[in-house]
Amino acid sequence: MFLSNLPVVLRMFTDPRHLRFTGEVIRRLKHDPSFSFAGYVRMFSGSARGERIVRFGNQYIISSYVPPVPSRAFLTLLDGASDKPFTDLAYVRRSAPLSTYLSMTDRCTYNCVHCSAKLRKKGPELTTSQWIKVIADLQDLGTSYIGFTGGEPLMRDDMEEIISVVDDRSTTILFTNGRRLSLKRAQSLKKSGLFALSVSLDSADAEAHNRMRNDPDAFSSALAAIRSARLAGLYTIVQAVVFRRELSREKLFSLFRLVKAHGAHEIRIHQPVPSGRLLFMKDRGDTFYSEDDRKRLFKIQFAANRRLWGFPKVSSFPYTEGTDKFGCSAGLLHSYVTASGELCPCDFIPLSFGNVLKDNLKELYDRMSRAAGIPKPSCLAIEIAPHLRGKKLPLSPQESTGLCRSGQSREYPRFFRDLQ
Question: How high is the pLDDT of residue 120?
C-alpha cells in the first residue's frame, strides 16, 4: 500500500462510523470457518493494491469498481451463494454479479471509433417500465453496483425516473460523454439518487480528444460536464481511452492535472480493446497495448497515486483486471445488458447468454457464470476478438457458451489466491 494512503487510512480507522461498519463486516463473515481477522486484512489490502484511497463525503473509496464504505451496497457485495460468504468471495461463487452495466440506448451524439455499441444487432430499446423490472431483478439477485451507459444514456429523458428506483442495496454510476450534461441535469441526477458520474475525456490535448470523438466541441463539453458533476455533489470520474500513441508519462500527467483542476475526484484509464469498429481495424502499432505497454501504464498509475496532492485518484482497468489484482471477471463479477435486453459478460464482449425480457435473469446469470469459470489473468475481450470477426453480433447463447468455456482459466488472480 502506498504511503500516500497513510493519512486517509488513519482517518478511516479512527472514524466511528467506519469502525462500526468494520465490526458489521466482521460479524457477517466470522460465521464462515475459513474467515479470520487476517483474512479481513488481506481483503482490505488486496482491494487497495495500486489504489489511492479517497474520502468522499462520509464514505471512503478504496476501489471505484466496488461500492464505497461504509454502505449497504458493500454489504450486498459480501453476500455469497451460501452460508460461507468469505469462502464464496475467495472462490468467486456468486448468486449475482457484483456489477451490471445497463446500456440505456445505442443512440449517441458522437461517433467514436472505439465504441463497443457499434456493429451490434439493434433491437427495440427497453422501455422505462422494462428497465425498472430489470433493476428490481438485479437487486433481488444481489447486484451491488449498477451502471448506466450507452450509447449516450442522457439522450433518454427518463434517466432520473429509472435511477430513482435503485435502493441502497446497490451503488449507481452513469457514464456520459458530457455533451448533454448541464449543471441543472447533474443536480437532477444527484437528487434522483445517483452516486457517481463518469465523463469521457481521452486527452489533455483538445484536438486529440475531438478527433477521438469526431466532434469539434467534445473537449469543451467534457470539461464543462466535469465541473457540473462536481458542483452537483456527485463522485466525479473521468474515463479516458488512451491509445498506445498517447501512452506516455508526460501526456498522462498533463491529463491528470487538467481533470483535477476541473474537479474530478478520479480518473480511470482504459486500454483500447478490439470491439466495435476496432474489431476490424488493422493495428498499425499505435493503437493496442503490448504487455510492456501495460507495465508502463502501471508505473505511471503508481507514480501518480504516490503523490499526496495535485492529482486525482488514478485507476486503470488493465491493472484492475490483471493477474496482480482481481483479474478479468467478465461473466462472473461483472455483466452487461444491451439496449435491447441481451445479457453479456461485459460491454466489450458481444456474447449473448439470452434476453432478460424473455428468460429468467437468475437462470441467465447462472448459465453465464458456469461458462466463464473463474476470473482470468487478462482481458477476455482481447482474447476472443479473433473468433468474432465476420460473425453476426452478439453471438447466440450456444456459441457464446462454447467460446467462454474454451477460454476458462485454471489459476485465480492474486486477490482471490490471497483470500484462499
Answer: 74
- Cell numbers 479470520 label which residue? 36
Q: What share of the chain is helix, strand, coil (3-state, %, to 5)?
A: 45, 15, 45
3-state secondary structure of 359: coil
Max CA separation in the chain (angstroms): 59
C-alpha cell at 374: 473463474
> Whose CA is closest to 146, among 336, 283, 380?
336
Burial class for 57, CB neighbours closer than 10 Å (0-12, 13-18, 19+): exposed
Q: How many residues are recorded in the chain?
A: 420
Rounded mean pLDDT of 400-416? 95
Report which of residues 82 and 171 the model is more confident about. Answer: 171
User: pLDDT at position 390, please?
Assistant: 86
Query: Which H or E element spans position 315?
Result: strand 313-316
| Residues 6+ positions from 40 with CB-CB distance below 8 Å | 22, 25, 26, 29
What pLDDT, in 10s, does the model give residues 192-218? 999 999 999 999 999 999 999 999 999
Amino acid 158: pLDDT? 98
Q: What is the dihedral of CA 129, 130, 136, 139, to 10 degrees?
A: -140
